[in-house]
Amino acid sequence: MNTSFRDCYIEFTDNRLKIGNQKVERIIEIKNGLPVSISFGNECNKWQGGNVSMFNVADFDFKNADISFDSYISGFGGKSEEALTGELIFKTEDIYIKLLIYVFPGIGAISTKLYIKGNIISSQKTCKLSDTSIESNNTDALIDAVLPENGVIDSFNISDKHIKARAVRLYDQTDVYNELVSYEDRLLYRRYDEYLSGSFLILDNYTEKKAIMLVSEGYVSGKKFCLDNDFSATKDAICVFGSGIEDNFDDYVFLGGVTAVIEAKEKLTDEYKAFYSCLYKKDDTFIMSNTWGDRKRDTSVSEEFIKKEIDVGSGLGIDILQIDDGWQKGLSANSGFTQNGSWGDFYDSDPDFWEINPDRFPNGFSVIKEYADKKGIKLGLWFSMDKENSYARWKRDAEKILELYEKYGVSYFKIDGLVINNHECEKNIYNFCEFIDKRANGKINFNFDITANRRFGYFIAKQHSTLFVENRYTDWRNYYPHRTLRNLWSLCEYIPAHKMQFEVLNQLRNDDIYKDDLLKPSLYPIDYMFASVMIANPLIWMEMSGLNDNQVEMLRKIISVYKNERKYFKDAVINPIGDRPDGISYTGFIIERKEEGYLILLKELCDDDTYKYLLNIKISDIEVLASNSNNAELSYDDKSITVKNMDKAGYIFLKYKK
Question: Over the stretch 71-118, which tens digit does the pLDDT of each residue have?
């Protein structure tokens, strides 16, 4: 079977699968019933090695399994770009294993997803590929295909001896974790099984100057159902582990995905972000407001209050006003009116929990919608799915979302409170997303909250949502502008910035709580704070009607400039520049396009007068679009730009030509 799509191709002949495009190719062979990854890469950058099978997720009889193959073009429900996809199914009487493998045109990445169903938990064998004894002389190449360790969902046979490995670990559950990216570097020994934690594994054969990156696209480290490992390196293969299996299933369940990326080492993360953006093809970034950041919770929410917020938001230039917890009839556990509110058991506590609160909104949302429409603002709402029986009521929740969309035009929903305890929860939340997408033709947008529990996070169901990354509050003294900036700065190297929402708070609130803190929020002007997160989807995390006139004017000016340029951000390559933010550094972002781009230069509360930003390109013809540092001086030379006399908590947003 041969199938092609633009520059992509799939060939499956005589138990040999070849998939690729003009930049990358992967070859898989069925050997003695086992799928073995023969090679990955291209002529200049090829990785190949032994005979370790791609996966081992159950006590599966590969030798007596039937194998079927199909190929097709998939748009992943219509919210992604189209990819050429192969579907390889192994089936016995009791178990089905499905491997999806796909490639996008022009992108140097090939991705797999592994699914399973059937009588899985009969017995799962544990095996390891390497003998950990230093005295072992078993160095002969593998002759017969063998299974990797149990729980592996993809593996790459790699014989290269000299590899520098960097494991990059991402964190969600941001109510607990504040540092969202960490790194581990090592020279691989590969005499015995080595384990590395993270979502990204960069393999650098520094002697031959070639590199690949493997991305584990499931739950982040520490959040898997049954497994602790992320990556392993043996003398024969590099393996990626899935989430584990905790039960038998009549329908396919998702065990995890792996994306392998080929490029020059310094361009690997850019190529992955290009792949990611094919799956999450958001048209533009957006500015959303949400009043919860001022910690009055639901106590202010009413028709008149929301109209005031719309007035201020319209003057600022926001796109979406999202009403958080409090619009609905039922009281949640986070309500300011009770200590006995519901959290997850919504319909049991009140069958009308998700009706519009008649006391706060006596006209439903009709008046609010009409008022917002006149002001050019879209409406969003907070919503939390009912957890009963692993989200078995997902369709009832979905129908409520669709009702609010069809009746009032609410098209942005913050999905909060998820607790994914098992594959059944996972499957039902998938169903919820896909059902709504199909009925609304992809016009409803989700903001998945990743602040607590086990949730889809950065990698699962990428096409369905932006990510609400952080809850931070001046009331709790856990909001610092440099910490929010640090997380965006760190994440944007690996995750497309337009996938994420990052917050701007009213920095003057609760100044007395911070006392003489040298990095307190009130030392930063609010336009700097907006500039520091505007590569993402800026979240105005406050009651805007509480801003003073000066704050409003500063925000209005920077938002006006930003909105003129943001349409160019989505297809740009965005990366951090300068130092990793810590409150006393020079930092920033580069937004690269083909012939031109942008720089956002940020000086934190730093005493140094001069700083040289090292760039990966040579720039010319700079134009300052916005700045709060009128006395700053800029000069540029080969692949750098130097700034002098910049104000503390100062920013410069500029456009350049290459």
Answer: 999 998 778 999 999 999 999 999 999 999 999 999 999 999 999 999
- 85 φ, ψ (degrees, to nearest 5): -125, 135
CA distance 586 to 581: 7
DSSP 436: H
Q: How far apart are the first and last CA of the chain?
A: 45
Q: Provide the CA 564 distance to its chain's centre, in angstroms.
A: 26
Asked if residues 19 and 103 have their Cβ atoms less than 8 Å apart, the reply is: yes
For 95, list phi and psi in degrees, rounded to 5: -135, 140
Residue 224: what pLDDT? 96
Share of the chain above pLDDT 70, in %: 96
Give per-residue pLDDT as tens, 495-552.
Answer: 999 999 999 999 999 999 999 999 999 999 999 999 999 999 999 999 999 999 999 9
- Per-residue DSSP letters for 369-427? HHHHHHTT-EEEEEEE---HHHHTTHHHHHHHHHHHHHHH---EEEEE-----SHHHHH
As a whole-number percent, the residues of the chain with pLDDT over 90 amount to 92
Per residue in 202-250, pLDDT (tens digit) is 999 999 999 999 999 999 999 999 999 999 999 899 999 999 998 899 9
> What DSSP string runs through 41-93?
EETTEEEE---BBS-B-SS--GGG-EEEEEEEEE-GGGTS--EEEEEEEEE-S
pLDDT bucket at 645, cuts 50 / 70 / 90? very high
pLDDT category, 144, cuts 50, 70, 90? confident
| Phi, psi of 524, rounded to the nearest 5 degrees | -105, 130
Burial class from Cβ neighbours inside 10 Å (0-12, 13-18, 19+) for residue 239 reads: buried
Torsion of CA 76, 78, 82, 83, to 10 degrees: 10
CB 385 within 8 A of CB 397: yes
Map tokens 């770009």 to a residue.
Answer: 81
Whether the full predicted model's pTM is greater than 0.85, yes or no, is yes
CA atoms of 315 and 8, how far apart (whole Å): 48
CB-count exposure of residue 443 (10 Å: 0-12, 13-18, 19+): exposed
Among candidates 218, 223, 175, which has minimal Cα distance to 416?
175
467 CA to centre of own chain: 7
* Dihedral in degrees, nearest 10, Cα atoms 171, 177, 183, 189: -80
Q: In Å, how far from its chain's centre is CA 175?
A: 17
CA distance 590 to 593: 10
| Measured CA angle at 146 (ends 145, 152), to 5 deg | 125
